[in-house]
Write a structure and sequence with these properties.
There is one protein chain. The protein is of the alpha/beta class. The protein has one domain (4-198): Flavodoxin domain (Rossmann fold, 3-Layer(aba) Sandwich). It contains seven helices and seven strands; from the N terminus they run E-H-E-H-H-E-E-H-E-H-E-E-H-H. Strands 1, 2, 3, 4, 5, 6 and 7 form a seven-stranded mixed β-sheet that branches. Strand 3 and strand 4 (85-86) form a beta hairpin. Helix 1 packs across helix 6 (159-175) and helix 2 packs across helix 4 (88-95). The radius of gyration is 19 Å and the shape is globular.
């Protein structure tokens, strides 16, 4: 059964360094696992996420995105850092995911920002978030400041080396797990009265 890696990108521009970092991490991990790559762009779902937080009902597009994330064999989550933490859009998306859906799922956390001063947000914001969601968070987190792009030696060493190390950890975690089950093409629809009848309950109107 084939495996799937899903990139969740909270970049706000197009193109964005956040999406670029996610793509590079996914490509590096896919080289080792042969997994397919899917991308969830939160920028395209911003209105749907806000509506769901208010109404409790996801749009079809948001529902598909949540299912893509929860059925993934491994996740790469990337956010820009604003005010020393993940973006509100990033947090809001994971707020609408049902509790327990990410339990045990390998997750590689990554972030981008203008300067390296924001790099600790990975450890005091993102890692605790996914630990709370009971995901299996990879030991190596990847941060890319503006000066890392195209530089041979960033503040924490070469960006490419960090990407390869983190992607290797994710690939090992994903390869050690059974592949996620395939999505059924269509669930059987059972009318409510029939469901009650199976339980020996007579409906009253």
């Amino acid at each position: 059964m084939s495996r799937t890696l899903v990139v969740v990108s909270a970049g706000l521009s197009s193109p964005s360094s956040t999406r670029l970092l996610g793509d590079r991490l996914a490509q590096a991990a896919a080289r080792e696992t042969g997994a397919a790559i899917e991308v969830v762009e939160l920028r395209d779902l911003a209105t749907d996420i806000a509506n769901n937080l208010v109404t409790g009902f996801p749009s079809p597009q948001l529902g598909d995105a949540v299912e893509t994330v929860t059925r993934a064999d491994g996740l790469i989550v990337v956010t820009p850092i604003f005010n020393a933490s993940y973006s509100g859009l990033f947090k809001s998306f994971f707020d609408v995911i049902e509790a327990g859906s990410l339990q045990g799922k390998p997750v590689l956390i990554a972030a981008t920002a203008g300067t390296a001063r924001h790099s600790l947000a990975l450890e005091f914001a993102l890692r605790p978030l996914f630990a709370y969601l009971r995901a299996d968070v990879m030991p190596t987190a990847v941060f890319a400041a503006s000066r890392d792009w195209g530089a041979s030696d960033g503040p924490d060493g070469d960006l490419t080396a960090r990407i390869e190390r983190a992607a290797g950890e994710l690939a090992a975690a994903v390869s050690g797990r059974p592949a996620a089950p395939a999505v059924a093409e269509e669930d059987e629809f059972v009318p409510f009265d029939q469901q009650l009848a199976r339980l020996g309950i007579t409906s009253s109107r």
